[in-house]
Amino acid sequence: MFRPLSLSCKLRTVIAAVFLVSGCGNVAFAAARPSAPAAKAHPDLSGIWEPTSGSMKPHGHPAFTPKATAAMSPTLTPGEAVWGQNGIDASDANCLPRRQPWMLVQSAPITIVHDGNKMILLYEKRSAPMHVYIDGRDHPDENAAAKPTLNGHAVGHWEGDELVVESVGFADHPGHGPLNSLPYLPTLKITERFRLEKNGQELHAQFTIGDPQLFETPYIYDFTWHRLPYRTNYALVELCDARDPARLKY
After folding, report:
1. What distance in Å separates the CA atoms of residue 159 and residue 117, rounded to the nearest whole number?
2. What is the C-alpha to C-alpha distance for residues 167 and 155, in angstroms, rounded to an integer?
């Protein structure tokens, strides 16, 4: 038999337009669940970045251990001594690659290719690419057969809008070390904190180089690059041929 809706039931019918309804006589009041806020996109560090004069600002002078001091004072041949007086070392003479962090603080630009899971840094002169994994993975287990590499194993994570990159597992190949001629040891750890400033036109980083065998305290410095426009700049990759005597000119 049809019965007119009571006022109470009418109100419940209106509410049913918002809540889950199983019938006028039995309204199921489902808890209202606000939609989760969209995840904030992290800054995109991609671009061509060039340092300028005064880009590097050390926090202080490195405090070297005796082992580091000895490593920076090798016995040189007469020819090597002349090179050294003019800013040329064995790595320059033999076209050995520069690597991080040295390659990131040179005068030539760096190119960064960056997506959500990985960042690749390319320096235009005598260097191998640096791969930074930002997909949540950790460094290889110390007991695993992880081969040390030229630029180490780099993983990153976000702290707000700052990308924190930690590198370990460096191979002690000849070449520019953390500070010129310092060796790469298994205890070396490099941390870099990248952030954008000035509406994305400047890339700032703080480098922390730590190795208890080489430094009494970690060596820290800040560095700044300026964005170069894509349309007017091209990467000028420079190769080095150890057979070319012109590389030793100064």
Report:
1. 15
2. 7
Which regions in the chain score pLDDT beneath 50?
1-7, 9-30
Q: How many helices (H) and strands (E) does the chain have?
A: 4, 10
Domains of the chain: 47-248 (2.40.128.20)
Residues with Cβ within 8 Å of residue 199, at least 6 apart in sequence: none
How deeply is 60 buried, as exposed, middle or buried, from its count of CB atoms within 10 A (0-12, 13-18, 19+)? exposed
Which DSSP category does 246 fall into? G
Which residues 6+ apart lie within 8 Å of 53 measured at CB? none
Q: What is the pLDDT of residues 33-56, one digit of tens each?
A: 566 555 678 999 999 999 988 899
